[in-house]
Amino acid sequence: MTENFSLEDLKQKYKNSKSFRLSSIAIGTLALIVIGYLGYRQFMWKPSNEKSKESYFIALNAITNEDSNIAMDTSKAGAKTDPIKKLQKSVKKYDGKIGGEVSKYLLASQYMRKGKYKEALTLLENVSVEDTYVSVEVIGLQGDCQSELNKFEEAYELYKTAANMNANNFTSPMYLFKAGLVAEQLKKYDLAKAHFETIAVQYPKSFYAKEKNLEAYIARNSK
Description:
With 223 residues, the chain is mostly helical. It has two domains: 23-150, Serine Threonine Protein Phosphatase 5, Tetratricopeptide repeat; 151-223, no CATH class. It is 72% helix and 2% strand. It contains twelve helices and two strands, in the order αααββααααααααα. The chain has helices spanning 7-15, 18-45, 50-64, 83-94, 98-113, 117-124, 132-148, 152-165, 171-185, 189-202, 207-211, 214-220, and strands at residues 71-72, 80-81. Strands 1-2 form a two-stranded antiparallel sheet. Helix 10 (189-202) runs antiparallel to helix 12 (214-220). The radius of gyration is 18 Å and the shape is elongated.
């Protein structure tokens, strides 16, 4: 999440599921940077997958320039690129190779931007990458999809899994925070309180500990 919500704003945004939609887009954008580096690093050592790399880099460029919703295909000067179509072709052609798996992730993020959460979830459930950080993001985005589909029990379990996969000051508190919000939605207030307390105690230097009013979240779940 990149917004600093007030308590009342957060309640309203959560009720309308807007906070999860915004966070999905933000995480997807950040993940592009990670994926780009991951792809470069892996392809440097795995030249046999060079073709699969090429298959998604054009789409990656299109996504990062999506403010105008149009990007230029650098392989054909002046030609316009539809990132979703490019990624769909890459997934079909290179499924199982590095480029195909990265393309699944990117395609899922694009589906989420367009509200196609079922399609995104199907892709994310079949992504296989070696990088631990990206693996966490794959699980976390599955949680975002489930929450958008109002399947909060499933979302809760996925957020817990993502939070515990690789302890760090970014993904762990983020998914603990989301788990806490979903626990509130499920009226599991003791669990929600525990998640918010864990962020405060174990990740005091994180964005969520510094910028969110965790005391308020803990207090409202201490009834």
